[in-house]
Recover the amino acids of this structure.
């Protein structure tokens, strides 16, 4: 929204002091010609008009030597020459993300452009963002662009409330940063968006989800698992499950008092209580006023003997009262160093379950769901590219789509494979061969040490039949082969036999942890 402020109603111009317009064209001899400087001489300071002319030449060179997609994303309206000071040349860009991309991928082509425009000389290229520019301004002398000063009658005040493109880019990058730094909220504040219904379940996490769902329906001594311990590497969904349990319990038991806290905040709260000389208040809070205690990253108590002592007594109190206890960690209880044996023992009183890295199918499912949430359209090829490249961390997997969505909105461009590789740093990604029925059968055969010929034979030995069913299940899920195609591959079996085998594994994988791990391991072979 632009609004002109009428200065002329308040100020009068002096007609006897008219200022002639300056002839700025003399500052530029020919903007279309290349500005040359001998390589053996030091470059002099340039005024702003000369810098503008050089900038146009460099931008033109880049436009001719890189793809339209990359040019519009990183340079068009984003990249400007600030100053040239002897061997150093300074450019400004809109965001730190664009700065990182240019420094990692385009410095060589930029150096060629500088040589083309300014002569055969190597420059020290410095890429700055808006946060860096104020400090630069104190060190670099600039000659302002010559222009005719305005009289008071001609002066206008412009109020622009629309966000600039630079503001939007900063907002876009902040979405990715916020996503990657997502941390659990302390105490009883739960994320309402983290529920079981929006958690993608696969062979790697199905047992953890099934157990957590059972706990949420019947918490404490009334249920099967009054103590639950979930461990996995970072970013595989442990915290999501904690919030999902809390939200589910509140739906069914709104009067229950739930505490979800990180081990680090638990320790900080105890230290503050000691400093304030009200440790009894701290102890009573957890022993008497909590029905469900969930502590995230319990391994953070390592080597904290005082906190471990308090935790030990609180655990005993709550367990004996039949309250619900849930803990998460990046290690199993036995693997945590610096934790007393008596605490390790208690952490194993209940069910201990792990979450494995998601398989390819689960990673693609996670991406599809996240893309739907972001209202982001991506082709199956792009989804497979991302899922194949990012294997170990769900937060990073989802974060890749947050970044793509944010920059697509800001840049107003459609997402293609090249843009995905650039933005996510997948330039070195090599297309994997298309997985076939034979690849999966060989991987299954090798994993179970059963000859492929036996797998495809009519043999009905228990071990061979189970391996055959697993291969059928993976062929159906990964390759999306039809029952008829799978039946022909396994010696002309009827499609009903394939349906039986696939359905059998589909049901077993929901409760069989060993089978889930087998499926994940087999995937690594193809």
């Amino acid at each position: 929204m632009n609004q002109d402020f009428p200065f002329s109603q308040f100020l009068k111009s002096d007609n006897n002091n008219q200022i002639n317009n300056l002839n700025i064209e003399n500052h530029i001899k020919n903007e279309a010609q290349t500005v040359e400087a001998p390589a053996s001489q030091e470059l002099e300071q340039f005024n702003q008009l000369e810098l503008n002319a050089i900038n146009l030449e460099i931008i033109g060179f880049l436009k001719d030597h890189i793809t339209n997609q990359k040019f519009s994303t990183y340079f068009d309206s984003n990249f400007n020459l600030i100053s040239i000071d002897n061997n150093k040349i300074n450019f400004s860009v809109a965001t730190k993300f664009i700065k990182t991309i240019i420094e990692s991928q385009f410095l060589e082509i930029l150096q060629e452009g500088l040589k083309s425009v300014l002569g055969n000389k190597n420059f020290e290229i410095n890429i700055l963002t808006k946060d860096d520019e104020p400090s630069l301004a104190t060190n670099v002398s600039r000659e302002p662009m010559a222009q005719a000063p305005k009289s008071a009658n001609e002066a206008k005040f412009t109020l622009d409330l629309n966000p600039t493109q630079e503001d939007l880019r900063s907002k876009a990058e902040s979405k990715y940063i916020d996503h990657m730094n997502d941390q659990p909220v302390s105490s009883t504040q739960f994320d309402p968006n983290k529920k079981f219904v929006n958690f993608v379940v696969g062979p790697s996490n199905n047992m953890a989800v099934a157990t957590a769902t059972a706990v949420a329906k019947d918490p404490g001594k009334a249920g099967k698992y009054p103590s639950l311990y979930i461990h996995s590497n970072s970013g595989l969904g442990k915290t999501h499950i904690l919030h999902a349990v809390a939200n589910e319990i509140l739906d069914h038991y709104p009067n229950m008092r739930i505490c979800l806290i990180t081990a680090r905040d638990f320790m900080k709260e105890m230290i503050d209580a000691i400093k304030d000389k009200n440790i009894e208040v701290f102890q009573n809070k957890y022993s008497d006023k909590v029905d469900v205690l969930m502590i995230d990253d319990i391994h953070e108590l390592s080597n904290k003997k005082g906190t471990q002592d308090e935790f030990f007594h609180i655990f005993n109190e709550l367990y004996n009262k039949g309250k619900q206890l849930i803990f998460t960690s990046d290690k199993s209880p036995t693997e945590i160093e610096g934790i007393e044996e008596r605490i390790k023992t208690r952490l194993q009183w209940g069910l201990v379950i792990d979450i494995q890295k998601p398989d390819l199918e689960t990673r693609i499912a996670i991406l599809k769901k996240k893309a739907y949430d972001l209202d982001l359209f991506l082709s199956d090829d792009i989804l497979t590219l991302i899922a194949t490249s990012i294997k170990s961390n769900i937060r990073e997997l989802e974060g890749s789509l947050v970044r793509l969505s944010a920059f697509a909105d800001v840049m107003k461009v459609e997402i293609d494979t090249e843009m995905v590789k650039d933005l996510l740093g997948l330039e070195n990604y090599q297309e994997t061969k298309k997985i076939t029925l034979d690849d999966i059968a060989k991987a299954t055969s090798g994993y179970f040490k059963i000859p492929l010929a036996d797998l495809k034979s009519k043999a009905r030995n228990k071990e061979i039949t189970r391996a055959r069913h697993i291969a059928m299940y993976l062929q159906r899920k990964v390759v999306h082969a039809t029952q008829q195609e799978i039946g022909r591959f396994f010696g002309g079996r009827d499609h009903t036999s394939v349906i039986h085998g696939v359905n059998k594994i589909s049901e077993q994988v929901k409760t069989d942890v060993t089978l889930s791990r087998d499926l994940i391991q087999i995937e690594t072979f193809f």
In short: The longest strand covers residues 79-85. Residues 1-43, 134-161, 183-188 have pLDDT under 50 and may be disordered.
